Amino acid sequence: MQSSLRSLAHGATYPITQHLYTDPQDGSLLDVVHDLSAWHGRGEELRRLFDARLASWGPLDRSGVWRYRELVLPHVAPQHIVTRGEGNTNLYPANADLQRYTGLAALQLKHEGENPTGSFKDRGMTTGVTRAREIGATAVICASTGNTSASMTSFARMAGVQPLILFPYGKVAVGKVSQSLAYGAVSIQVRGDFDAALALVRDAAERLPVYLLNSVNPFRLEGQKSIIIEMLHQRGWRVPDWIVVPGGNLGNTSAFGKALLELREVGLIERLPRVAVIQAEGASPFAAAFRREFDHLEPMSAETVATAIRIGNPANYAKAVRTVLETEGWVTTVTDQEIMDAKAQVDLAGIGCEPASGASVAGARKLVAEGVISPAAEVVCVLTGHVLKDPQAVIDYHSAQMPAITPQFTNPMHTIEGHLEELMAFLPGATVSA
Ligand SMILES: *Cc1c(COP(=O)(O)O)cnc(C)c1O
Questions:
Q1: Every domain of the chain and the residues it spans
Q2: Domain 91-118+221-398: which topology?
Q3: I need a labelling partner for 204 at 20 to 30 A (CA). Which of 81, 104, 315, 402 fits?
């Protein structure tokens, strides 16, 4: 099974063994491309293979990424693989409240916050750190709004390579900073925003002996494809009408399109779902470009309560455009208010997610209201991160302490002296038995 690196801009190809992040001629993005011709027309065989692996205890079969290795990174030698059994995340049916809130009768939530470090980033880090090992890297580096760094640090520790992370100053959620410190990253705050930290990291990766693990690295996206593959496997390969995902650096958006095209190529699915990308209003250069029919990307200075998507200059723009065009997708924005209220609804369902994940549910709701998504459509919203990633946002929301947000679903804390009678107020109509 042959794989190579191909320039997105002009199609030049390079051997998979060559150590590249971007095209050496013009700096454009690279795709990892696999020659899947040997699998053409063998969808049924692949289904049986993936089903059989669900009954295996082999570490690669147990991983929700490497279970699909024929489609992920078929060239990798098993001894290089660094896995934590990532993926295997739940696909929840929406309860009646969430159905009412979104206006969707057939809504499912794919909860990527259930990965080992609490975000979908683990799916890209198992492949990214595996690549780092394959090329013999001794140190790895990333700029991060928090989840990338937590994930990279964990996988780097498992692999025995040195993790180095750069944060935008003072803008990272507490759950994420604490994970990176705990796992032992060299953690550095950069005076500037995420986009400034990423520019520095890209420079460092060219000139210092460190391997770059931001999502401009195409090997990460190969792992993130498995969100789609696993979700479709869970649905018995029944394609939904829409997949809705938050967009920051647009790595997921890019990976989703690539996964869907490859699944169709090998015959695991016959048609493509439409991919809707949701951005926070204060960090929405992709949505603005969509409205201009993708004439060009206009970077912006980003601000949103959803720190994981607080990105003004998305690295994977060109690949994400391809996803939206190929799937006849959509891009829209939601306000911080809509994000936090939608998150509260997901939390109240007992599922829970971090603010950025609320964007997908808020976006699905908005697109139903606008008539883009039909109320009868089968929709999968991707929840990208765990509820414990940003505990401060939860506390601030429920105590109505968020600037410019009027929370619609608060659950305030109560205080009592400690007498049984005081509990009666919380149990309307109850009587005390002897
Ligand atoms: C990284 C991240 C995002 C943004 O994903 P992109 O692939 O960069 O668009 C969204 N939500 C969470 C929780 C994240 O960690």
A1: 91-118+221-398
A2: Rossmann fold (3.40.50)
A3: 81
Q: Is 154 in the pocket of ligand 1 (CB under 6 A)?
A: no
Q: Which two tokens stand for residue 215?
A: 């999502």
308 CB near ligand 1 (under 6 Å): yes
Closest by CA to 26, choosing from 1, 7, 54, 46, is 7
The structure tokens 């990766």 sit at 205
Residue 54 CA, ligand 1 centroid: distance in Å = 28
> Which residue would you say has higher pLDDT here, 261 or 170?
261
Pocket-testing residue among 109, 112, 120, ligand 1, by greatest number of atoms within 8 A of Cβ:
120
Over the stretch 346-379, which tens digit does the pLDDT of each residue have? 999 999 999 999 999 999 999 999 999 999 999 9
Q: Are the C-beta atoms of residues 324 and 243 closer than 8 Å to each other?
A: no
Mutate to test the pocket of ligand 1, among 109, 110, 115, 119 (most ligand atoms within 8 A of CB): 119
pTM tops 0.85, yes or no: yes
Predicted confidence at residue 168, as pLDDT, reads 84
Q: Which two tokens stand for residue 425?
A: 């107020």
pLDDT at 1 > cutoff 60 = no
Phi, psi of 174 (to 5 degrees): -65, -35
